[in-house]
Amino acid sequence: MESLWMDFANSMWRDWKSGGPSVDRLEQPQWRQSFTTKLQYAVNEADQEELERARLLRDRLLRYAGNLAAGELLEGSDIEYLNKVMAGGPVVRRLMADGPALRRVLEPAGSGWGQVLADVAADFAGMLSEQDISRIRCCDNPDCRWVFYDDTRSRTKRYCDDKLCGNLMKVRRHRARRKAEAHKEKNS
Known about the structure:
By secondary structure, this protein is an alpha+beta fold. The protein has helices at about 5-10, 30-40, 50-70, 75-85, 115-130, 160-185; strands at about 10-15, 25, 90-100, 100-110, 135-140, 145-150. The protein has six helices and six strands; from the N terminus they run H-E-E-H-H-H-E-E-H-E-E-H. The strands form three sheets. The protein has a two-stranded antiparallel sheet. It comes from Paenibacillus medicaginis.
């Protein structure tokens, strides 16, 4: 399950293979452009204040996801913060004809970074109110910690990607066992 808020939260890229340096994709203009293009917004380049607000939201979303994955709930101050961010991007409600049917749509009233952050926060709020929050996970690879939604029937998914992080951790466990066995035989 891909979502706007998860894409945004995972903008802090970590070297999942070796624990090398992290890359803050929010600092990359091309990443910001790609992200806002997904929203179909023509947003001006972010200034330092907007980038700081974006980093703060991202860091809080990562903390919230970690707390949810640990079975904790959001606190009142967390909900107040999300409401404040969402208030920075008002919407206009419209009734639209969709063939013979009618549907209600919410159109953004703005197109700046306040609107982008409000939409990210609103996506997170939608997940909190409409999805099973016990399925939010952080990858068990300590070098990754990517946020994902466990949509498996068994609810046992531990890694953001079984073929990447899952396989890497399986190889690490296997090598650690072999090393321990070799050390045990050497000392016997």
